[in-house]
Specification:
Elements lengths: L1 H6 L2 E13 L5 E13 L3 E8 L3 E6 L3 E6 L4 E6 L4 H12 L15 H5 L1 E12 L2 E10 L2 E8 L6 E8 L7 E9 L18 E2 L10
């Protein structure tokens, strides 16, 4: 799967996501959402994440990453590294910005990630969105996760389920993948022009890249 993902240069990806919120009473509340990725490697990325509760647009043009919240009209940006992988790492480590399924840009690249897995089992085939996918279940510290991988030469992920095990309520996040491998993008897809009335704010200075 990692080899297949690294071979993709230009693609679109639509995610149907479900996340769980745990109330103080212990009751779980599910929230649905969608995330759309537009990707042109090595240095162009656009992510649009929408739900009934939040809306975010992230645009990376090779030099700058911009985060825009269209519902409240605020945006911020910071100078970014010259490739998608390092930019997403910087967003996570220095800004605390976790992006849905951003790990797909690292799958198969990090031997330490494999070392963290304490057990793995093959569950068997299952049909996801019309595709025959092989299901696997993994365990590691604080997290159980399942992944369904498309059968055949294009071994792309079909679905993931992540369970947080260090919380007694064990909340889950899941995403179903819909790939567009023939995607083409308009020239302005990977550039950000603030709409009229939008206000620029600053990321916290202590978190900005040094």
């Amino acid at each position: 799967m990692g080899t297949t993902l690294r071979a993709l240069q230009t693609f679109g990806l639509h995610l149907d996501t479900t996340s769980e919120e745990v109330l103080t009473t212990g009751q779980k509340i599910q929230h649905g959402g969608v995330v759309d990725y537009s990707v042109r490697r090595p240095n162009a990325l656009r992510i649009e994440a929408n739900s009934d509760r939040t809306s975010r647009i992230i645009v990376y043009d090779g030099t700058t990453l911009t985060l825009f919240s269209p519902r409240i009209g605020y945006w911020a940006s910071f100078p970014a590294p010259n490739n998608i992988r390092d930019t997403l790492d910087a967003a996570r480590d220095r800004l605390g910005l976790e992006l849905p399924i951003s790990d797909m840009f690292n799958w198969g690249n990090d031997p330490a990630a494999l070392a963290r897995i304490t057990s793995a089992i093959s569950v068997g085939p299952e049909h996801i969105a019309g595709q025959t996918c092989q299901q696997y279940a993994m365990r590691q510290d604080k997290v159980d996760w399942q992944i369904w991988i498309r059968e055949g030469e294009q071994a792309l992920p079909c679905k993931v389920v992540i369970t947080t095990t260090d919380d007694p309520s064990m909340p889950q996040f899941s995403a179903v993948f819909n790939w567009r491998l023939d995607a083409t993008f308009a020239a302005d897809t990977f550039s950000f022009t603030p709409p009229e009335g939008a206000r620029r704010i600053q990321f916290s200075q202590q978190l900005l890249p040094r």
